[in-house]
């Protein structure tokens, strides 16, 4: 089975993190969100992956290349203008002649893909949608199903709703739908395709999951995803250890403190560059572990720029590390 990852969105709601990179390239624990999705697909034997790209597409292509470094085969569907969640897929229908999986590039999940595939086959579905219950469904598409898990109602971002089962943006699609509902130009699963499938009584079924899933669509959800990973609520195949925490007011031996000024107008760009480089433990803090057991912590100071704390076995090394990251922040300000 092939998979299509939707990675063309601009991610305006996730700014400043998406100023310099595509939304799926925003890091969690020093690894892009998109890499977690590719690792998930690979772990279930899905190695042929198409990635739709548009905004900041070079940041994706330069990192993942042809996928060989991640033991998968990656091809790119470049969109010159945004085509929505489904438009790029319909334009590539000649490449999708068998049932395929669709995954949102900003979804952070450990979904049991094998169970979704088995459900799709048992139901003989034209399309399977993966759903999950959430506390507040206002920002999602709300699903209504019958006793057989067939989709009978769907409303995107409703003002009023019944139930809290929402669309995760994960689908398995039969290729005949790409021919039957072919259309050029922008097209959206939730706004266009799903309503048409319902109107035409197509066999759309909903697999409800209890697995971890979070839509990284805004800074608050992004922060929660990082916290979930650190707490062990989301467990990918490989995860680095938790970062050591420190009270900045207590300066132990071999900890160097450096203050770096930064104009407020430059700060969003510097924050975005930091997020490309290191993981954030909080919205205003970044932590880097060093191989020798030391670490560097970068704290955003609302009034004075950034404060850098570096710890190492030797005092001169701690000083060098702090100055190194201070120079990087100063360089980013000049861009």
Question: Any overview of this molecule?
Answer:
This protein has 335 residues and is α+β, with helices and mostly antiparallel strands. The protein folds into two domains: 2-219, Alpha-Beta Complex (Spore Coat Polysaccharide Biosynthesis Protein SpsA, Chain A); 245-333, 2-Layer Sandwich (TATA-Binding Protein), CATH 3.30.310. The protein is built from nine helices and 18 strands. The strands form five sheets. A seven-stranded mixed beta sheet has the order 5-4-1-6-11-8-12, sandwiched between helices. A five-stranded antiparallel beta sheet has the order 14-18-17-16-15. The radius of gyration is 22 Å and the shape is elongated.
Mean pLDDT: 81
Residue share in β-strands: 25-35%
List the secondary-structure elements in sequence, H or E. EEEHEHEHEEHEEEEHHEEHEHEEEEH
Q: What does the overall shape look like?
A: elongated
Number of strands: 18
Name the assembly state.
Answer: single chain
Descriptive labels:
Spore Coat Polysaccharide Biosynthesis Protein SpsA, Chain A, TATA-Binding Protein, 29% helix, 9 helices, five-stranded antiparallel β-sheet, alpha+beta, elongated, 335 residues, seven-stranded mixed β-sheet
Question: Can you summarize this structure?
Answer:
With 335 residues, the chain is α+β, with helices and mostly antiparallel strands. It contains 9 helices and 18 strands. The longest helix is centred in the C-terminal third of the chain and has 19 residues.
């Amino acid at each position: 089975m092939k998979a299509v990852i939707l990675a063309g969105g601009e991610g305006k709601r996730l700014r400043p993190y998406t100023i310099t990179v595509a939304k799926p390239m925003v890091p969690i624990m020093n690894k892009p969100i998109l890499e977690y999705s590719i690792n998930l697909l690979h772990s279930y034997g899905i190695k042929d992956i198409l990635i739709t790209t548009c905004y900041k597409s070079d940041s994706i292509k330069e990192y993942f290349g042809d996928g060989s470094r991640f033991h998968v085969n990656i091809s790119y569907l470049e969109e010159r203008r945004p085509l929505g969640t489904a438009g790029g897929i319909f334009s590539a229908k000649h490449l999708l002649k068998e049932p395929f999986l669709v995954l949102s590039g900003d979804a952070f999940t450990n979904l049991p893909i094998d169970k979704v595939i088995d459900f799709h086959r048992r139901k003989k579905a034209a399309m399977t949608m993966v759903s999950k219950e959430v506390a507040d469904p206002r920002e999602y598409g709300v699903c209504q199903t019958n006793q057989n898990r067939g989709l009978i109602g769907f409303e995107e971002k409703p003002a009023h709703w019944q139930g809290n089962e929402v669309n995760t943006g994960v689908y398995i699609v039969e290729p005949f739908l790409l021919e039957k509902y072919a259309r050029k130009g922008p097209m959206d699963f939730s706004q266009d395709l799903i309503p048409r499938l319902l109107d035409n009584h197509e066999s759309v079924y909903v697999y409800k999951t209890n697995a971890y899933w979070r839509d990284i669509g805004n800074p608050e959800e992004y922060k929660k995803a990082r916290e979930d990973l650190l707490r062990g609520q989301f467990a990918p195949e490989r995860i680095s250890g938790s970062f050591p925490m420190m009270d900045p007011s207590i300066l132990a031996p071999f900890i160097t403190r450096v203050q770096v000024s930064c104009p407020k107008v430059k700060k969003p760009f510097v924050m975005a560059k930091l997020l490309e480089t290191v993981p954030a433990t909080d919205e205003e803090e970044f932590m880097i572990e060093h191989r020798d057991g030391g670490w560097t912590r970068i704290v955003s100071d609302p009034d004075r720029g950034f404060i850098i704390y570096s710890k190492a076995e030797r005092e001169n090394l701690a000083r060098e590390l702090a100055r190194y990251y201070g120079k990087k922040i100063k360089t980013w300000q000049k861009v």
